[in-house]
Design a protein that fits this description.
By secondary structure, the protein is mainly beta. The chain has no helices and 11 strands. Strands 2, 4, 5, 6, 9, 10 and 11 form a 7-stranded mixed beta sheet that branches. The chain has a 4-stranded antiparallel beta sheet with strand order 1-3-8-7, with no helix packed on it. The mean pLDDT is 96.
Length: 117
């Protein structure tokens, strides 16, 4: 089993990034998938979750209207589209199996997102 994130990097305030997470070794469509983030000195927090078939999503209040979570069960991938990025979005972003509607039982290795001018 493996979750591999990609798409992080350095972006200016107001910019956009799209994170992707590829899943291997399990039946992807059987699981809720989520994105979490952890900023330096802070606890890990949930950013967004998406139900197994993608019909329901949940977003943290801090990212509503700016971030979108989506999934492609045919390609075993989940994405996080991040727009209007702010410096406070700077964090390591983790792909997670599970979340919001149930416990997380597997984590990716994380990808760094830095929002700075």
């Amino acid at each position: 089993e493996q979750l591999v994130e990609s798409g992080g990097g350095l972006v200016q305030p107001g910019g956009s990034l799209k994170l992707s997470c590829a899943a291997y070794g399990f039946t992807f469509s059987n699981y809720v998938m989520s994105w979490y983030r952890q900023a330096p000195g802070k606890e890990r927090e949930m950013v967004a979750s998406i139900s197994r078939l993608g019909g329901n999503t949940n977003l943290a209040d801090s990212v509503k209207g700016r971030f979108t979570i989506s999934r492609d069960n045919a390609k075993n991938t989940v994405h996080l589209q991040m727009n209007s990025l702010k410096p406070e979005d700077t964090a390591v972003y983790y792909c997670a199996r599970g979340g919001y509607w149930g416990p997380v039982n597997y984590w990716g290795q994380g990808t760094q997102v830095t929002v700075s001018s």
